């Protein structure tokens, strides 16, 4: 009986350690597309968004979004319980450009979109890099 309790305790400790390590790890994007945005590509992305051919989605928290965000973007917080519900309101035939602070959360979002059957969920990286490459801030 002691052996069983000891093994169960060790198993719980191992699972807790793995779960804690997971919360601090860097996400590696799976199969969905990722773009390195430069100045000329920025102009093309804005043109697509303004013409209604694409969405620009900021997947950061509402607080982050309120402090600074790209013009023409919509905030859909990847950490929200309603993320899937909100994303599924977007048309599957349009490109969905995703960004966050560093490109980590937008990579997760791009993979999530792909799992929902979206073909055009594209991680374009982090906010500061996008601004440096010509995307306008609001």
From TrEMBL:
Pfam families of this UniProt entry?
Rhodanese (PF00581)
Against PANTHER family, the record matches this protein to:
RHODANESE-LIKE DOMAIN-CONTAINING PROTEIN 15, CHLOROPLASTIC (PTHR45431:SF3)
The organism of origin for this protein: Flectobacillus rivi
Domain (Rhodanese): give its ranges. 50-138
**What protein name does the entry list?**
Rhodanese-like domain-containing protein
- Secretion signal, residue range per the UniProt entry: 1-21
Write out the entry's keywords from A to Z: Signal
Q: InterPro entries given for it?
A: Rhodanese-like_dom, Rhodanese-like_dom_sf, Thiosulfate_ST/Rhodanese-like
Q: Can you tell which superkingdom this protein's organism belongs to?
A: Bacteria
